Amino acid sequence: MVATAVEDLAPRSEEEVLEHLKSGKLVEGVQHMSPKYLQGIRRILTVSADTEFVSAPAYLRAAQHAPALNNFGSAISIIQDELAHAHIGYRLLGDLGVDMDRLIYERPAAEFKYPYAFDVPLDSWIELVCANALYDQAGYVLLSDVYESSTFGPWKRALAKVDKEETFHLRHGRTWLKKLVKDSGEKAKVQAAVDWMFILTLEWFGLPDERKRHGIQLEYGFKGKSNDELRQAWMAEVVPFMEEIGIEVPAHREGDRYVIDCAFPRAFDEESKTWGEQITWEDVLVRWKARGPMNEAYVEKLQRGYRTTSFRRAT
Ligand SMILES: [Fe+2]
Ligand SMILES: [Fe+2]
């Protein structure tokens, strides 16, 4: 059998990698990886980079509704951060033997691996700042976990910068929401946006632990917390904040845990952005796999320049 690129690139055995990690050392490059570690880290980096990348066109669409030019400038600054975050992930993937041009610019839209939430359009400034408070908070929870637990040194170090910028994004959302809820009309719009976005962000963290345990992700230290633990960490930030500003969310605290108060997971109507009856996680997986309304348009926006310019990287 012809050896795959992954096997050629990653020379260590599973035992050697686990031994290396047990001794408290970080993995610094393919020379420290087994094929399984390499495949795993490529997968989680791709999900992370794709999520950062697609947030740029998603936020840009909504930024056009900025109430004033300086607000538009803040949104653009966030978008610029997100593109830089994406670049960190893709650049690391390039170092791990992935063809970056193919991955970023030639991959079909349906193969991008970001959360379904970004496939649902953000249609107003209010939805943008809600996304900052909810989606960027999810990104922050996920990346803080990677920052604390990751065994891949180059990513861990890069995340020190990313974490600080994500803090700015979610503060941007929170500051705006605090201001908006003072007006009853605006508050109703915030509530309407949170009504559809809160549950979509709950989904973001993936299947519950009883359904899926990311053995390899935890064993190799790609991340430290399970899906349910991350969902809890997100609710622990978002639910008290929403209560503080008088916005209702379908979750409450019981002891040291948060309990979801509505049917979950649920059917979602993409047109009206409303939630329906309880469904199974299998049904959710079907919806995720089909992708949502903005998938093709966003990826097209990100890839268009590559196709329409004659510039190519010098070899
Ligand atoms: Fe980001
Ligand atoms: Fe962000």
Q: What is the fold's blueprint, element by element?
A:
Elements: H1 5-9, H2 14-22, H3 35-63, H4 69-95, H5 100-106, H6 125-149, H7 153-180, H8 184-204, H9 215-219, H10 227-244, E1 251-254, E2 257-260, E3 266-269, E4 274-278, H11 281-290, H12 295-308
Antiparallel strand pairs: 1-2, 3-4
Helix pairs in contact: 3-4, 3-12, 4-7, 6-7, 6-8, 6-10
List keywords for this structure.
single chain; 315 residues; mainly alpha; two-stranded antiparallel sheet; globular; binds fe (ii) ion
Q: Helix segment count?
A: 12
List the helices and strands in order: HHHHHHHHHHEEEEHH
| Low confidence ranges | none
What is the CA-based Rg, rounded?
Answer: 20 Å
Q: How many strand segments?
A: 4
Strand order of the largest sheet: 1-2
Bound molecules: fe (ii) ion
Describe the structure.
It is a single chain. By secondary structure, the protein is mostly helical. The chain has helices spanning 5-9, 14-22, 35-63, 69-95, 100-106, 125-149, 153-180, 184-204, 215-219, 227-244, 281-290, 295-308; strands at residues 251-254, 257-260, 266-269, 274-278. 63% of the residues lie in helices and 5% in strands. The strands form 2 sheets. Strands 1-2 form a two-stranded antiparallel ribbon. Strands 3-4 form a two-stranded antiparallel sheet. A hairpin with a 4-residue loop joins strand 3 and strand 4. Helix 3 (35-63) runs antiparallel to helix 4 and helix 4 packs antiparallel against helix 7 (153-180). The protein is globular and about 60 Å long. The relative contact order is 0.12. The mean pLDDT is 93. The structure holds fe (ii) ion (2 copies). Residues 52, 81-82, 85, 139, 166 line the site of one fe (ii) ion (FE2).
